[in-house]
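User:
Care to share a sequence and structure tokens?

Assistant:
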Amino acid sequence: MNKYIIIIFLMNISYLSSHPVVQGLDLQKFMGRWHVVSLIPNWIEKGASNSYDDYKLNEDGTIDITYHAIKDGKERTIRQKGIIVDKNILSRWKIQFIKPWVPFYKAPYEVIILDDNYEYMVVGYPDNRFGWIMARSISLDEQKYNQILVELDEKFGYDKSAFEKVVHNY
């Protein structure tokens, strides 16, 4: 039992080193489909292709998030719920995993870069262990992509070489 308490504590300690986040996020404009262009892979997403998230704002202020991808030749879906941490900072959330259900754990979610037109964004992770570059389309202009990587390095301390592009072939 103590082992599980320690694991949960260590998973949640990452909130102590949060990034500065985007100010003035418009939740209505943010909703919809975001394709994963590049990411620092985690065990769930490593080797996945055609990955994207669909975001839907609920009446209670939570956000339904459905992740879709192809991995090992099979369609994968993960259902999540975004919970805004502070009503004054709409770009910092906690993510609860609904399907598969992961009790007692809520992952940090930080929108750290957002295009003025909501065409691309970056979700950061407090200790830089993970990161996602996402766009409304399946790719970004190479120059813009490289600018984002430079900003992630210089402003947030990310290792640019840790990001891997996601294959989209649909």
In short: The domain at 22-165 is CATH 2.40.128.20 (Lipocalin).
